[in-house]
Protein 1
Amino acid sequence: MSNRSLSLLVEENSPLQQQPDEYEYGIDATEATSSEFLLPDDNNSNNNDDDDTTMILDLTLFFLSGLGSSMGYISSLSSLVHFQQVFGNNFFVLLNVAIYLPLVPISIAQATWDQQYDRYFATLRAFVFRTIIGYGLVITGTIGLIFTMISGGGGGGGTKSHKPTHYSMVAVVISACLQGVGGAILYGQLNQLASFVTKNGYHATTNLQGTFQETFLEQDSDTTLPRKCKAAVSAGVQASALAVLVLSWTSGFETMNEERFPSFLWMVVVAVFICFLAMLWLLIGRPRVRASMIQRDSSMQLSITSRQVSFQRQISSPPTTTFDNITMNNDITDSEDPIRQPLLLLSTVQQEEFVSEQCRASNELQPSSNEATMATTSTSLFPSQTTVPIGLSVSLSQSTDLSECYHPATEELSFEELLRYSRPSCLVMAMTLIPSFLVGSWFTRVRTNRMELPQILFYVRIGMDFLGRLATILPWVVDTAEPSPYRDGTDDDVPTNGNDDDDNNINNDMSWVVRTTLARWLVVILFFVNSRFDFVKTEGYRDLITITLVAFIAFLSGFLVTTCYQMAPQQLPIMMRTTNAAKQASILTVAFALSALGGLLLSFLLIALGV
């Protein structure tokens, strides 16, 4: 190659070029010269105290956001005794399906398109938009349920003489479905957000000469805050039942007072709106979250830029075996040979399609050395002090080895590759949630003479699930989930289709979780045996055994599901986590949704079999 420089310009009509100089988070890309903007000085003890305080506030906002995401549909599920009296025993299973079924298509859509839209519109804008849509659907569904019950859905607001109709049943199911759709949107988004929030925010803003890799390693190796954020979200999702219980007693609805049902739901609407404001504050007003969004946007941009550099290498420098052999005896210089001139770049979409097929093959022809790291990339891509705004003009010097500019550690993994890394967590989630939802939808069919027992079982399940999620932040649990030392982001960490030692390491990391999940199935079997057969003749003792079994099942359910969300990112190479953490969280949410649906469908099967 000649000594001239290659210039890589992103097209003006590319969505990546549409970001203004003043970044939408309020940070001027031209003035951000500190390597730790939006961050306290780690050497200042007062700032450290302030950082601890702000961390508690951030976790509280995560908790409230999770609380509001599920409070709408939990208010419907917690009214199971009321709906049982109005619509019959089997309606509770139908209500569960109406609420949790939308989670399947929503989670699949989030895993497929969310990251693309986040890259196009920027993370902050996309997250705020989805927050408004999600909470809007939750509030709309709850208000729709109020008017349905008032207008003739089996009581409420002094209309106790109204009889339930087929129309009212359908209207209740539709309202619950809206609550489920909104909750699914918010649940998936909160898990994405918790997966990439970092303790120290975004450091990589200036002096990118050889420091980019160290920055990512420093941030991604600290997994304490993401684990706490995920635990806070999970705890909030379950704690909404406790908040609903308080509201039901405060409103006078309690468990089955039909006349107070609308008042109870209106209080739920107010509480959900307060949680909506808390989530907006988390997204817009918290510096750590905003800085983490900038880090994620820049990481996604770096991945695209690396692909563009590799694409430029593909079209401007053919392999030696195909071109140089032809021109070996030719004295034409690079500047005189039009074939060696860099071609105009195709559109961003065309580049990505080309690179996805050709880049890996080219790396095999011109393998990069083990020293090809993100530091090399950052030195060549960003030679001067600058931030990493979305939309770049990249100048490559003559000393740049373009074969090293694209490194697997910077890439956005495909669904197949992410699924391979996430496979143990998805399997554990399925083995945990299928029996959980099967048991949870069976409360109204447990043999008992106490009408309030289903309500008691519901709140026992929610409360113990909540405690199980909080237990995941215990020190011994954190120690078992530390990242494996072999996942350092090198080429050897890129997923393969074969069975290698890496597969065994992944499975070994999750082995204790798998064993616990399998042992829990024995308790699930005991629950159904106890609820179906009269081995214990005394009614009170049998109910006590049922409550104990439900408490044990629910505690392990919350513990195991949250552990899966926390441990899954540790299976990714360190350098790949920032770019792929949110996408992996969406894949886990898909597994969550499919498992929940599987448990509910199994309930219908058992009912059809007459169990």
Protein 2
Amino acid sequence: MAILINMEVEMDQDYMTELVSVQLKKIRSERGYTQEKMADVIGLSKKALVQIEKGRALAEWPHVVAVCALFRSSETLQSVLGDDPLEVIEAVAHRTIDRPKGKTMGGRVWWKAIEKKGEFRLQQHLISHHYRILDSYDDLWFSSFEKADALERLDELFLEAEEAKR
């Protein structure tokens, strides 16, 4: 089954809910879980899980978040959300994240380089289209769906680093 992602759709909670709901059965099967086990793990009734897997209902937002957190290494989930589904879900939930967050994989697969200033670089996620700023050690400093905010923060981080050198 081919997975089609509409690159024109804004990545929001509704879109994420639909995207994860459609893949839930594959995610469960990939892990080797029964419906009972999967329902228990993500906090659903088995009846609700069956309805989602048959396409009669969508998962609710808290269950989508749980799936992204608990199955973040799932190949199926990564194929629709990129290398770090948890980062995508966090960006969708908060719209902007402005704090040093820790090590990333550097964005060599799922990210497009936008701009570089000093030790900081701005990237855009190829699937969700959110932006992030990494330093030269691949630490995440900022994440947002707003390009203008990301560019402004890139300038600020660059200036702060330059001032610290003096």
